[in-house]
Amino acid sequence: MSFDGLVDRREESQNGNGTSNGVVRPSYSDRRLRLNPNTNHKPESYEDMKLEFDPTVYSSLERHLPPSMLAVGREAKVQFMKEILARYLPEGERTRVQRHREYREKIMSNYEPLHRELYNIHPTTFFVPSFIKAIGDNTIESFRSIISEPSPGIFTFSMLQPSFCELLLSEVENFEKWVHDTKFRIMRPNTMNKYGAVLDDFGLEAMLDKLMDEFICPMSKAFFGEVGGSSLDSHHGFVVEYGKDRDAELGFHVDDSEVTLNVCLGKQFTGGELFFRGVRCDRHVNSPTQPEEFFEYSHVPGQAVLHRGRHRHGAWATTSGHRINLLLWCRSSVFRELKKYQKEFSTWCGECQREKKERQRQSLAATKLVAKSMQKWNLTSSLNSTKVTPESDQPKAHAYK
C-alpha cells in the first residue's frame, strides 16, 4: 500500500465559534521576537492573572521579547504576547479555548482521581534510572548514552517504570468508567482517534507540563533546536487506544506539534507498528517518500519515541490484544511566529533540502557550461588573431618594365 497520497494533519478536537468583542488596544506588532531566548533575563510570574493560556507560556515567551519590551510593565508585556499568540490563534479559536477551559473545570469539579500520586511528578517512581541520570547530566553525550537513532531524527529510549504505566492505565480506566457511568460527553484526543482521553482535561496538565519542561525540553533542545525544540512552551497530552472495539490503525499524517513524545504503556498486543515517511514542511507535506525515508518501529511498553511533529507517520493495525500509548505534543509559540518569516528553503524539510541541492546542482552545471563556452570562444578568438595568411592569398609583386 502506498502512503504517498494526501497526508492528514492530526489536530486537537475543536468546537465553538466566536466573534470580536470590539475592544481596541494599542498594538506592538511592529516589534519582533528574539530568535534565541535571553537566558539572563528572569521572567515575571503570571500565575495570579486570568489568561487564555497557561501562565508558564507567558513566562517562557517573555525571554524572547525584544529588549525594548523587557523594561515595560507586566500588563504591557502581556498585551504584546497576546498579540503574538493571536496571530496563529484567531478570535473564534480563543472563544473555543475559553469554552474548553469551562468544560475542563466541569470535569475536574466532578471527577474523583483514583491515584493522586500521578498528579505530581515523582521522577524516581515514574522514570527508569538511566533516563533520570541522562537528564540530570544534561549533555549530548549523556543523551546519546541512552538513546538509539535507528533512522535520522527518530530517537528511542527506555523511559517509564512498569509501575507508573500500570498506575496511569488504571487512572485512565477509572476516568473512562466515570464517563460511562455519568454519561458525560468528552472530547477525544484529536481529529483522527475515536478512542482515548485527553489527560490534561481531568487534572494531569500540571504534571505533564513539568514532564515537558524538565525532562523533554533538554533533549528537544539538543536534537530539535531548528524546529523550536529549545523554546517549547505548551503541550497537548493524551492517551490513544487500539485493538478490538477500539481504533484499529492510524492513517498517514503529521502532528500538530513541533516535537512529539510517544510512549507505549501496554498492554499485551501484536501489530501496531509505527511507520515513518520523512519530514516535510506544509508546502511539501504530500510529496513522494524517498527510499531512505522508509522506517518502521515496533512498540515496547515503557519505551519512548521522540520525533519532529512534521515527521510524517502512521500506525499499522493492532491485530490482537489492546495497545495504549501516551502522547505528548510539545509546541513552541515562538517557532510558529518565526516560521512566518521563513526563507524559501527550510533546514529541516527533506524535500526542501532536495530541491535546494537540485537547484545548486543545476546552477553549478549551468556555470560549468558557461565557463566551457567562454573557454571555447576565447580559444577561437585567439586562433583568429594569430592566423597566418596562406602564400596563395598574399599579394604578388609586379615587375615594371
Fold and architecture overview:
The chain is α+β, with helices and mostly antiparallel strands. The chain has a domain at 113-339 and 346-351: Sandwich (Jelly Rolls), CATH 2.60.120. The protein has eleven helices and 13 strands. It is globular. InterPro entries: Oxoglu/Fe-dep_dioxygenase_dom, Pro_4_hyd_alph. Residues 1-45, 381-401 are annotated as: Disordered.
Helix count, DSSP H or I runs of 4 or more residues = 11
CATH topology of the domain at 113-339 and 346-351: Jelly Rolls
User: Could you tell me the radius of gyration in angstroms?
Assistant: 29 Å
> What is the rounded distance between the termini?
101 Å
Report the CATH architecture of the domain at 113-339 and 346-351. Answer: Sandwich
Key words describing this protein structure:
401 residues; alpha+beta; Jelly Rolls; eight-stranded antiparallel sheet; five-stranded mixed sheet; 11 helices; globular; disordered C terminus
Give the arrangement of secondary structure elements.
Blueprint: E1 8-10, H1 55-62, H2 67-70, H3 74-86, H4 91-110, H5 123-126, H6 129-137, H7 140-144, E2 148-151, E3 154-158, H8 162-182, E4 196-198, H9 205-223, E5 234-243, E6 250-255, E7 259-266, E8 269-271, E9 274-279, E10 294-297, E11 303-308, E12 311-315, E13 318-331, H10 333-338, H11 350-385
Parallel strand pairs: 1-6
Antiparallel strand pairs: 2-3, 3-11, 4-5, 5-13, 6-12, 7-11, 7-13, 8-13, 9-10, 9-12
